[in-house]
């Protein structure tokens, strides 16, 4: 049987990988629009209102506040739709890579059939991706069940590390922005009434910050749980191979659920850390390979 590292180079898998990234990109664009319309513009008008006292600016700010109420629901629906499409394509990739000839009480399940996936990936032109691209590091030195577990753990580790950096960066930027807006407003209008009038325009930003951290914390809790499950599978001495595959299938189902719910991370941020994280994953895979060889020699 071909290893997972080899199987992920099949043309259809590569096309699926591109389609998955494209759908995530669409979702991230919608998330960016949501931030600009529902947060950034509202805060911009808060500052503008403090700097220029006129009915026109006040009218625009009130109109924007009303528009945000209707826009937020629609944009969120688009985000969830694209994110669900991307997660289902990734689930198809994983089920194709992880499925093996081993018998188990459960089966690797994907919401999409092969015909479904062909239709979906054909909607995206075959450009903008590398045919030599790899999603998982090389764990071919391991038994197939361990290859699956290591790949699942790689998914979890990669996602967790990236989210940690992103949360720190976003919180730092958002808090500094809030402080800057407040300082500008107070300097231009130091009286108490202006301080109070700033609060309603601050609320959308504060709500976004609180919701963002609440969702990121939920992502971390899920990832910690998934990582613990993956470690237990690798450390456990299974008397029956089918029991191990049952646990791997359960873990994959929960990874799929996490992908559908997780906070989106912009592509530019992913690209900032991709090279570093990829090197780290390759080092881990090499270490696993060396341990496997040493164990065989021993």
Care to give the gist of this entry?
This protein has 298 residues and is mainly α. The protein contains 8 helices and no strands. It has helices at residues 4-7, 11-51, 55-98, 114-121, 144-188, 192-235, 241-261, 267-297.
Structure overview:
This protein is mainly α and 298 residues long. It contains eight helices and no strands. Helix 2 runs parallel beside helix 5, helix 5 runs antiparallel to helix 6 and helix 5 packs parallel to helix 7. The longest helix has 45 residues.
What's the helix and strand layout?
Blueprint (H helix, E strand, L loop, with lengths): L3 H4 L3 H41 L3 H44 L15 H8 L22 H45 L3 H44 L5 H21 L5 H31 L1
Helix pairs in contact: 2-3, 2-4, 2-5, 2-6, 3-7, 5-6, 5-7, 5-8, 6-7
Low confidence ranges? none
The main pleated sheet reads as: none
The structure class reads: mainly alpha
Approximate strand percentage = under 5%
- Overall helicity: over 70%
Alpha-carbon distance between the two ends: 26 Å
Q: Specify the overall morphology.
A: elongated
Count of extended strands: 0
One letter per element, helices H and strands E, the order comes to HHHHHHHH
* Radius of gyration, in angstroms, nearest whole number: 24 Å
Q: Average the pLDDT over all residues and give the rounded result.
A: 83
- Count the DSSP helices: 8
Question: Keyphrases for this structure?
Answer:
single chain, mainly alpha, 298 residues
């Amino acid at each position: 049987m071909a290893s997972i590292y080899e199987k992920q180079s099949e043309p259809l898998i590569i096309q699926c990988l591109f389609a998955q990234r494209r759908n995530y990109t669409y979702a991230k664009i919608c998330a960016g629009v949501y931030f600009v319309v529902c947060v950034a513009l509202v805060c911009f008008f808060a500052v503008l209102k403090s700097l220029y006292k006129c009915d026109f600016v006040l009218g625009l700010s009130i109109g924007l506040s009303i528009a945000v109420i209707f826009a937020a629901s629609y944009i969120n629906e688009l985000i969830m739709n694209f994110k669900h499409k991307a997660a289902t394509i990734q689930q198809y990739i994983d089920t194709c890579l992880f499925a093996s000839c081993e018998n188990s009480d459960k089966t690797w399940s994907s919401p999409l059939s092969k015909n479904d996936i062909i239709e979906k990936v054909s909607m995206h032109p075959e450009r903008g991706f590398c045919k030599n691209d790899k999603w998982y590091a090389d764990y071919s030195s391991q038994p197939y069940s361990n290859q699956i577990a290591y790949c699942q753990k790689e998914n979890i580790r990669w996602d967790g590390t990236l989210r940690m950096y992103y949360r720190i960066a976003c919180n730092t930027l958002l808090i500094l922005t809030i402080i800057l807006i407040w300082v500008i407003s107070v300097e231009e209008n130091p009286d108490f009434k202006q301080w109070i009038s700033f609060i309603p325009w601050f609320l959308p930003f504060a709500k976004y910050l609180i919701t963002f951290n609440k969702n990121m914390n939920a992502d971390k809790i899920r990832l910690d749980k998934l990582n613990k499950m993956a470690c237990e599978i690798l450390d456990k001495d299974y008397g029956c191979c089918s029991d191990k595959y049952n646990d791997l299938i359960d873990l994959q189902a929960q990874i799929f659920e996490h992908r559908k719910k997780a906070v989106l991370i912009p592509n530019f941020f992913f690209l900032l850390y991709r090279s570093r994280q990829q090197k780290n994953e390759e080092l881990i895979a090499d270490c696993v390979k060396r341990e496997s060889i040493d164990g065989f020699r021993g």
